[in-house]
Amino acid sequence: REHDEVADRLELIRACRLVERDDLEAGDVVLRPLLAAGLDWSDYATAASARTDILVARGEFRHARAWLASLCAESTLRGVSLTPSVRARLAELEFWEGRHFAPRTVGECTSADEIGWRALAAWSAGNLPAMTLLSGRLVAEARSNRSPGAWWAALIHVLFASRCHDADVDQRIQALADLSSNQPRARLRRLARFIGARVLAARGRTADAIAQLDLVAGPGPESWAAARLRRLLGSLNPTPCLPARHHPSMPGIDFLAVRS
User: Fold this and answer.
1) Residue 109 pLDDT more than 90?
2) Residue 144 and residue 40: Cα distance in Å, rounded?
3) Of 109, 255, 106, 116, which is closest to residue 185 (Cα–Cα)?
4) Which sign, positive or negative, has the C-alpha torsion 83, 89, 92, 98?
5) CA atoms of 96 and 29, how far apart (whole Å)
6) More exposed terminus of the chain, fewer Cβ within 10 Å: N or C?
């Protein structure tokens, strides 16, 4: 069984990397037997988080909600806590669903990814105090340029650039782009480009915004929001082919796609 556990863990690592690189079909094929293989709770939760990524990237938000609800129920039955990866996926899904951030949960966040998604939810709700508090948490989490906290802190730093001079805005966007080279999740790299484009569009720099949006292509809600914002800005460029089954409308997508 020890050999099986090592083999399962190696397969789990491979599956997560496939999903991070947008190879959803291959990742799903590897994940399905792992989820039925009797993994320990930590590995099972990691596999289940990757499965959530696949569902969200496909636009299957209701299935993702049901899947995460089953994980929460299972953690209760087992008498164990939700892992940081599951909590981060819950925070992400709640952003796309338009569920507003609850300030009382700030101290309960267990990872930079969870804090980052909660900060985006606070931003979408117009909750500047909560967003500022969470931004401070991210700065504290940013122990090195390769840490998830550093990437999320840079993303929020771009969002706070609305009153900055153009040169400062460009500098913040470039800093985020530099950190994105160490971001393993392709969808988050697209989110970074989209946020930069949205900030540029809000400042009336339409051509620069469209140039950024043209680079946002792939499965997931970030790309669907980018396609909508591109059309709103009047881009004559064709929308990049998005390898997704459908382009659903969700409050988080609607919020991101609105030019502000």
Assistant:
1) no
2) 30
3) 116
4) negative
5) 26
6) N
Dig out the tokens for 189 from the structure: 């790299």
Q: What is this structure's pTM?
A: 0.91
**Confidence at residue 248, expressed as pLDDT on a 0 to 100 scale:** 67
> For the chain, how many residues are written?
260
In angstroms, rounded to a whole number, what is the distance separating the alpha carbons of residues 166 and 233? 19
For 56, how many CA atoms within 13 A lie in the half-sphere containing its CB? 28
Residue 245 to residue 34: CA distance in whole angstroms: 25
Report the chain's mean pLDDT, rounded to a whole number.
89
- One-letter-per-residue 3-state SS of the chain: CHHHHHHHHHHHHHHHHHHHCCCHHHHHHHHHHHHCCCCCHHHHHHHHHHHHHHHHHCCCHHHHHHHHHHHHHHHHHHCCCCCHHHHHHHHHHHHHHCCCCCHHHHHHCCCHHHHHHHHHHHHHCCCHHHHHHHHHHHHHHCCCCCCHHHHHHHHHHHHHHHHCCHHHHHHHHHHHHHHHCCCCCHHHHHHHHHHHHHHHHHCCCHHHHHHHHCCCCCCCHHHHHHHHHHHHCCCCCCCCCCCCCCCCCCHHHHHHHCCC
* 29-81 confidence digits (pLDDT tens): 999 999 998 899 999 999 999 999 999 999 999 999 999 999 999 999 999 99
Nearest in space to 182 (alpha carbons), one of 135, 220, 144: 144
The predicted pLDDT at position 243 comes to 46
Supply 80's token pair: 């164990």
pLDDT band at 11 (very low <50, low <70, confident <90, very high): very high
